[in-house]
Amino acid sequence: MGEHRNWPERLHVVTGKGGTGKSTVAAALALGLAAGGRRTLLVEVEGRQGIAQLFGLEPLPYAERRVVTTTGGGEVRALAVDPEEALLEYLDMFYKLGVAGRALRKVGAIDFATTIAPGLRDVLLTGKVKEATTRSKDGRRVYDAVVLDAPPTGRVGRFLNVTEETRKLVKVGPIKTQSEGVASLLRSPMTAVHVVTLLEEMPVQETLDAITELSGLNIPVGRVVVNGARPPLLAGGRVTKAEIKRGLTAAGLPAGTATVNQLTAEAQAHLTRRELEESLRVELAELGRPLIELPLLPDGVDRESLGDLAVRLMQA
Question: pTM for this structure?
């Protein structure tokens, strides 16, 4: 089926400040991109088993497993990348260690290697993502798109800037070659980093900082996704006590002074918040990136609401 018209990249990296719902957005994007007979891979790299929780599954192994079948025969597969397993796979691929690699794990060498050199860990994780993104079978790409639920905005630049991290570790050899291949993919038109935010000051500031950092690293930034957007409850710019009292009376509800005062204070707080949200929207719009708003899900995330978010993303 190939690329989606509105989302033409092959690798979609999704980041955002913790608590903005980036994992939910990544899952919805993978779901949307799989519609119409496509196959997508949803990857997580932080060991949180967030994909399994979102789809109501048991913890995922280090294997590509189908988690959802979509309309038109499409499917979403999921992969929770384990850095230790990725290192064993890497050692076997380049050094044919096989059983010896497993022995290294028993004595704790694998854990030691990935802990002592976080740059190595990131090369292994991004290397696995690159492999899945570029993998072909019988002359056809295995995945039409790969969606990476990436580390949060505060760490995403370092995570994606693998060549710089690797340069500190090795000067030659397969791991240097692999990191250069990853860097090349991440800086190509095949990749886009989408940043998820809420209309709150800290997430918006982290979004602005992350986009500045990624642009400085020549990593392509895609869309800004405003998650949890709430519709305005009040049409006018201000609400008076007299209006609230009239409204309560017309509805046959008690309109005592305490009730009117409390509702007036709540209405004012809502309007103040809306004013802040509008100023943050303007800041985000000034980035000049495509902006998508997804609604607040008051009942939480389930398969149905994920599907609704997927449809909204695909239409944007």
Answer: 0.87
